[in-house]
Design a protein that fits this description.
Blueprint: E1 4-8, E2 12-13, H1 20-38, E3 42-50, H2 54-62, H3 67-84, E4 91-94, H4 98-113, E5 117-127, E6 132-134, E7 140-141, E8 147-148, E9 154-165, H5 171-180, E10 185-186, H6 188-199, E11 205-206, E12 208-209, E13 225-226, H7 228-238, H8 248-253, E14 258-262, H9 266-279, E15 288-291, E16 294-296, E17 299-300, H10 311-318, H11 320-329, E18 337-339, H12 341-370, H13 383-403, H14 408-429, H15 431-437, H16 439-460, H17 465-474, H18 485-488, H19 513-516
Parallel strand pairs: 1-3, 1-14, 2-3, 3-4, 10-15, 14-15, 16-18
Antiparallel strand pairs: 5-6, 5-9, 7-8, 8-9, 9-11, 12-13, 16-17
Helix pairs in contact: 2-3, 4-7, 5-6, 10-11, 12-14, 12-16, 13-14, 13-16, 14-16, 15-16, 16-17
The structure holds 5'-O-[(L-methionyl)-sulphamoyl]adenosine (MSP).
């Protein structure tokens, strides 16, 4: 059996249009999924939409639409934006699907049968924006006597009959689980936050609502629909065929390797979710990774401020791979980050067009002109050449290690260090000068550059698949050799004499019309 890897995005609320936040999580998961596939893993990559709950019900009503028709429309937009961002998810789940209802109700039954659910009455605070319950000690007073959650969401007082999950029984077991699995919550700062929350004492959790209809019906309990987070979290099981634990996908992929989430939804994934799973006799996921939030030119992103970043606008302005690269490079993954057009332009022009684009363009053009448009001879390779190729090989190992910790920007740093070395190598070796004095040596230098580009393109591929396909095509690398094993495999190296197509630029400089003329 091959190695398997299961990664998930959060499922996105369909109360609003897709924006940079959802695109960010999706691209990060995509980069991870592509890296693992290329490294020989059998990958299951899941994304989807979270369609039930009060927030979506109200958004539908505001739009004068029936909730199902509303969610059909919005869910499609999320599917479209994934395709547009070149995200390679293997499945797309909608919580209004029948398979999901089956999974949720089966999980509920298990929780009930194991004695973890009881009927009671909820009286407390609820923030619809977060679809979350809050203890009074977590809230502050806002204007007009409103109570405000730590997230800034307004809370309302709710009193209704409700089923409860006995979360209070799970505090010690959760702490033991975190202790035994130090990498379960990453980064470390989030882990500390979760542990102190759990240590502060767990209260039972209300897991059904009677105030709304738009949800998965609780089995044998007319009037109750499931609390949207219980239903939403279950999506990660639904997609594997749960409740059939003999389903091939379930056996291959559960427990999930990484649930990628934003920092705002760690509590649901790192506290409630493992508690539900353990209570149902299922294994918790191996990791919950919480990334940071983007601001826009220093400001919090919000619909009311009108500064939401539209992924379509970004891609149409700067290019798809440029946007994917920026999102993964600009911020150490896990930290908050700021989007600015200046930073976007700087990265596009200096790191993509100059550092990598020029390296490829000048190497391939010299090969095209001086080596008969074929892979040059490697007969006269010297130590410096081998040293450069070793740098590229080392970058692969470094990237592999960093990917194990979702340290995407650090992996790019390591790769760009090699690109820097390669650019210095071109300047030092000056192959244009060798053309007359030592043509065989020129061939070896150009071979080294082409081979270095091949190795780098493979390692960069998960971040920017279209552009790297273009580069690999210019090196005539067959699709079967587009793997990470091929980076270091002797029999995958470029073969001197192989015909190469005419090179074309991969990364155009960003030059808006008004500045291009200057
Ligand atoms: N539906 C829940 C998730 C259920 S998963 C079982 C949800 N949906 S959401 O659409 O509101 O948010 C989805 C993701 O987008 C979250 O991980 C959130 O952190 C992320 N982002 C929303 N705005 C963001 C930024 N400004 N920056 C980065 N990510 C942000 O929560």
């Amino acid at each position: 059996m091959s190695k398997s890897f299961y990664i998930t995005t959060p499922i996105y609320y369909v109360n609003a249009e897709p924006h940079i936040g959802s695109a960010y999580t999706s691209v990060a998961c995509d980069v991870m999924a592509r890296f693992k596939r290329m490294d020989g893993y059998q990958v299951m990559f899941l994304s989807g939409t979270d369609e039930y709950g009060q927030k979506v019900e109200q958004a539908a009503a505001k739009n004068g639409m029936d909730p199902q028709a509303f969610t059909d429309k919005l869910s499609q937009k999320f599917r479209d934006v994934l395709a547009f961002m070149n995200v390679s998810n293997d499945d797309f789940i909608r919580t209004t699907e029948d398979r999901h209802k089956t999974a949720c109700q089966a999980l509920w039954k298990r929780l009930e049968e194991s004695g973890n659910i009881y009927l009671g009455k909820y009286a407390g605070w609820y923030a619809m924006r977060d679809e979350a319950y809050y203890g009074v000690d977590e809230l502050r007073d806002g204007p007009n006597g409103k109570k405000i959650a730590p997230s800034g969401a307004e809370c309302e007082w709710v009193e209704e009959p409700s089923y409860f999950f006995k979360l209070s029984d799970w505090g010690d077991k959760l702490l033991k689980f975190y202790d035994e699995n130090p990498d379960f919550i990453m980064p470390q700062s989030r882990r500390n936050e979760v542990i102190s929350f759990v240590k502060s004492g767990m209260h039972d959790l209300s897991i059904s609502r009677t105030a709304l209809r738009w949800g998965v019906p609780v089995p044998d309990a007319p009037g109750h629909v499931m609390y949207v987070w219980l239903d939403a979290l279950t999506n990660y099981l639904t997609a594997l065929g749960f409740p059939d634990q003999n389903a091939e996908k379930f056996k291959t992929f559960w427990p999930a390797d990484v649930h990628m989430v934003g920092k705002d939804i760690v509590r649901f994934h790192a506290v409630y979710w493992p508690a539900f799973l353990m209570a149902a006799g299922l294994q918790p996921p191996k990791r919950v990774y919480a990334h940071g939030w983007w601001t826009n030119e220093g400001q919090k992103i919000s619909k009311s401020l009108g500064n939401v970043i539209d992924p379509y606008a970004l891609v149409n302005t700067y290019g798809l791979d440029q946007t994917r690269y920026f999102l993964m490079r600009e911020v150490p993954f896990g930290n908050d980050g700021d989007f600015s057009h200046d930073a976007m332009i700087r990265r596009t022009n200096s790191e993509l067009a100059n550092d990598l684009g020029n390296l490829a363009q000048r190497s391939l053009s010299m090969i095209n002109k001086n080596c008969n448009a074929t892979v040059p001879s490697n007969a006269r390779m010297a130590d410096t050449d081998h040293a450069l190729l070793r740098d590229a090989d080392n970058a692969l190992q470094t990237a592999r290690d960093l990917f194990e910790r979702q340290a995407f920007s650090k992996a790019l740093d390591a790769i760009w260090e090699v690109i820097g070395n390669a650019n210095r190598y071109v300047d030092e070796q000056a192959p244009w000068g060798l053309k007359k004095t030592d043509p065989e040596r020129m061939q070896a230098v150009l071979y080294t550059l082409a081979e270095c580009l091949r190795r780098l393109a493979l390692i960069i591929w998960p971040f920017m698949p279209d552009s790297m396909d273009k580069l690999l095509d210019q090196l005539n690398v067959p699709a079967s050799n587009k793997t990470l094993a091929a980076v270091t495999a002797a029999n995958c190296q470029l073969v001197p004499g192989t015909a190469l197509p005419v090179p074309t630029g991969i990364f155009p400089r960003y030059a808006p019309a008004e500045t291009a003329a200057q």
